[in-house]
Amino acid sequence: MKALSTLILTMLVAFSAQAETVTAAQDPWPPFIQEGSDPGISIALLKAAMEKEGYTVDFKILPWKRALNDVINGNIDILPGAWFTEERAKVLNYSNYYAQNSIKFIKRKGDPFEFNGLDSLSGKKVGIVSGYGYGDEFTHATNFSRPEAGTIEANVKKRLSDRVDLTLEDEIVAKSVMKDAGIDLGSVEFTSNALSVNDLHVATGKANSQGQKIIEAYNRGLAAIKADGTYDKILADYGVK
Predict the structure, then answer these.
(1) pLDDT tens, 30-89?
(2) What is the pLDDT of residue 16?
(3) Three-class DSSP category at 72
(4) In whole angstroms, how far apart are CA 236 and each of 35, 42, 148, 170, 228?
(5) pLDDT at position 133, please?
(6) Burial class, 28, CB count within 10 angstroms (exposed 0-12 / middle 13-18 / buried 19+)
(7) SS3 of 187-234
(8) Label partner for 103 (CA 20 to 30 A): which of 33, 134, 194, 221?
(9) CB atoms within 10 A of CB 89
(10) For 144-170, how does the pLDDT look when each residue is reduced to its tens digit (9 = 90+)?
(11) CB neighbours of residue 86 within 10 Å
(12) pTM metric for this prediction
């Protein structure tokens, strides 16, 4: 009888541990999301925050659009790094923000272009990453075109081969991607003015019955790692604080 009780208790503990695992997925977006043994800032913060709330995180790399759709549909629990848009807010729950991205235009070295509002983009081809959110005004503007590519690396290469006039990305992310891809950082410049400064959030799908609960747990965990110094240490480890 004692052996049976022990077995039942063991099974309950195992079930409980399994129930506290959440899944997450996104495309590489260094230094926030990275492949390999070092998962990047967003995942380090996510795991630390969720651990405070008793969760473990099972993260995998997926193409952006697939990860976004899987989170929206509730097949994956968490999108670790998402910007807010009104359109996405219809289907996603957003956490408190944990970082900010300054989205600047990338131009060829020596190009005198400076971003001074959407009117300054008139007639230009501005390379974007398919499925990324750049803000509703930029997305719906009609005075310039937005040819799509799968990655920021592809867009930088398109700029260098004159297939687009500009592309845009968070400056920290773009420099990290270019360095990893072997692209000469001296071949491009960033505009002084940013399109936007975007808050970076964790998101879950509204179709996910546990989505809001996960967001609330993350918010509590984020507050906890900020209070105990873990948050600052993670940022310092990546050289962004």
Answers:
(1) 899 998 889 999 999 999 999 999 999 999 999 999 999 999 999 999 999 999 988 899
(2) 46
(3) helix
(4) 20, 13, 34, 18, 14
(5) 82
(6) buried
(7) HEEEEEEEEEEEEEEEEEECCCCCHHHHHHHHHHHHHHHHHCCHHHHH
(8) 221
(9) 12
(10) 999 999 999 999 999 999 999 999 998
(11) 9
(12) 0.72
The three-state secondary structure class of 20 is coil
Q: For residue 12, what is the enclosing H or E element? A: helix 2-19
Length of the chain: 241
**What confidence score (pLDDT) does residue 160 get?**
96
Cβ atoms of 195 and 168 closer than 8 Å: yes
| Backbone φ, ψ for residue 177 (5° rounding) | -65, -45
Instruction: Count CB atoms within 10 A of the CB of residue 194.
Output: 17
Q: How far apart are CA 36 and CA 135, in angstroms?
A: 31
- Segment holding 139, helix H or strand E: helix 136-140
Structure tokens at 239: 């050289």
Q: How far apart are CA 152 and CA 156, in angstroms?
A: 6
Please name the residues in contact with 136: beta carbons below 8 A apart, sequence gap of 6 or more. 85, 86, 87
